[in-house]
Design goal:
Structural class: alpha/beta
Oligomer: single chain
Helix content: 25-40%
Number of helices: 7
Radius of gyration: 17 Å
Distance between the termini: 32 Å
Strand content: 15-25%
Largest sheet: 8 strands, mixed
């Protein structure tokens, strides 16, 4: 089935303490977003790439593409009020058949085996999300500030690309927006579908804090 990838890049970089949106911060010689796009292109040169960016960042991205000679074919669509609406805008550019991976623009180190597994499982089962077991202990905090230990084996950390049959995820995104939609899988579940879990990779972190930049740069250089 035809493969698509929607790369959502609407970050402002506030937690970075940087005026530059985090997807445009340069590491290992290129903007983070460029590394993310290249990773998917290396995985499958025939994949259709759609980049979701705020309207006021699109001209800047064009200039970065020229400066860094980013020639990988991709479409750019404007972001929405929330991530939900941004993904909805990206889905509007995709036909109703195929498999689509929805990915964070600041996750440039997704292993190709993870992407492949997500596409394969989504084609067979309808939806797939990469996850990792937790290694830290967990505590639940209550409104009165008290807390208690919880069993970490009952939880997993969720990554992207969250990958789905296009027909099913489009149906899910026809639902009215809800604050409980924390990611694409939560929208998918609200429509009555159940995503399969696949193993993620530790390097596939979402670059959010300054320390993440240093770690990601090491990974990209390797």
């Amino acid at each position: 089935m035809k493969r698509y990838a929607i790369i959502v890049a609407g970050g402002k970089g506030t937690r970075m303490g940087n005026d530059i949106p985090k997807q445009f911060i340069e590491i290992a010689g290129k903007p983070i977003l460029a590394h993310t796009i290249e990773n998917f292109y290396r995985f499958d040169p025939n994949i259709d790439l759609i980049i979701v960016l705020p309207q006021n960042q699109q001209e800047y991205w064009k200039r970065l593409c020229a400066v860094h000679r980013i020639t990988i074919p991709h479409l750019v669509v404007k972001g929405g009020e929330t991530r939900f609406h941004s993904v909805l805008n990206g889905l509007s550019l995709i036909p109703d058949e195929g498999i689509v991976a929805i990915h964070d623009g600041v996750r440039p180190l997704t292993a190709h085996r993870v992407i492949e597994n997500c596409f394969h499982v989504a084609e067979e089962k309808g939806g797939a999300i990469p996850v990792l077991p937790l290694t830290d202990s967990l505590r639940q905090i209550f409104p009165d500030k008290s807390s208690k230990a919880v069993d970490r084996t009952a939880f997993v950390a969720v990554q992207t690309p969250q990958t789905f049959r296009v027909e099913e995820i489009k149906k899910a995104y026809k639902l009215p927006y809800n604050d409980t939609f924390t990611d694409d899988a939560s929208v998918y579940e609200a429509a009555g579908y159940i995503p399969e879990l696949v193993e993620g990779n530790r390097e596939n972190m979402k670059i959010t804090l300054p320390v993440d930049l240093a770690i990601a740069e090491i990974g990209l250089k390797e």
